[in-house]
Automatic annotation (TrEMBL):
Stated name of the protein: Response regulator transcription factor
Pfam families tied to this protein: Response_reg (PF00072), Trans_reg_C (PF00486)
Response regulatory domain mapped to chain residues: 2-116
Any single biological process term in GO: regulation of DNA-templated transcription
InterPro entries, A to Z: CheY-like_superfamily, OmpR/PhoB-type_DNA-bd, Sig_transdc_resp-reg_receiver, WalR-like, WH-like_DNA-bd_sf
DNA-binding interval(s): 124-216
Keywords recorded for this protein, A-Z: DNA-binding, Phosphoprotein
GO molecular function: phosphorelay response regulator activity; transcription cis-regulatory region binding
CDD domains listed in its UniProt record: trans_reg_C (cd00383)
Organism: Jiangella asiatica
Domain OmpR/PhoB-type: 124-216
């Protein structure tokens, strides 16, 4: 899952990004509306966590731009303005959800997960394949009953591969969905991560398809 956090309070933005990354999400951060539009123009996000009162381009304008592009990105507005009129106006902009400040991180996390489920075809909460069980919500992976210890990056890559249900996933798509914008597309990060996953999974499950990518 790839998320863009747009928040001008840098400490809050960085805290949210750090927390979401611990949940195996690829997270980019923008601190104003102009930067947000730049990132939205070049990256495909599942969820946009958007502060409404932004410097530069206002959050309302960012929201309208995303809606007008008719992309699959789901929008969660964050704002200190929480009266009924503000909530209604925010939803009328085309946002999918609205969360007032201050908020509990656990609630924000639950809302991001809920929006992500709406951004893509519905998936079961537990994915299974040949003795491999991936509990997406609890971030637990077992193989033949043995619990595996995976890094957030490994969990993200494995989830993408299992969700593909045997289809080939290119290295470029894995970079797009499991890494943030700081990933260097010319490195061997995907190959190294897949190699580590293979070692932890035991019996080979991940197949390399020459000049195409990987599949389970």
């Amino acid at each position: 899952m790839r998320v863009l956090v747009v928040e001008d309070e840098r400490a809050l933005a960085d805290m949210l990004a750090k927390g979401l990354r611990r949940e195996a999400m690829a997270v980019d951060v923008a601190y104003d509306g102009d930067e947000a539009l730049e990132k939205l123009a070049v990256n495909d996000y599942d969820v946009l966590v958007l502060d409404r009162d932004l410097p530069g381009v206002h959050g309302d304008a960012v929201c309208r731009t995303v809606v007008e592009r008719d992309v699959r990105t789901r929008i969660l507005i964050l704002t200190a303005a929480t009266n009924l009129r503000d909530r209604v106006d925010g939803l009328h902009l085309g946002a999918d959800d609205y969360l007032g400040k201050p908020f509990e991180y656990e609630e924000l996390l639950a809302r991001v997960h809920a929006l992500a489920r709406r951004a893509e075809p519905r998936r079961p909460p537990v994915l299974e394949h040949r003795g491999l069980v991936v509990d997406v919500a609890r971030r637990v992976v077992t193989r033949d009953g043995r619990r595996l210890s995976l890094t957030s990056q490994e969990f993200a890559v494995l989830t993408v591969l299992v969700e593909a249900r045997g289809a080939v996933v290119s290295a470029e798509e894995l970079l797009e969905r499991a890494w943030d914008e700081h990933a260097d597309p010319f490195t061997n990060a995907v190959r190294v991560c897949v190699s580590k996953l293979r070692a932890k999974l035991g019996e080979p499950l991940i197949e390399t398809v020459p000049r195409a990518g990987y599949r389970i």
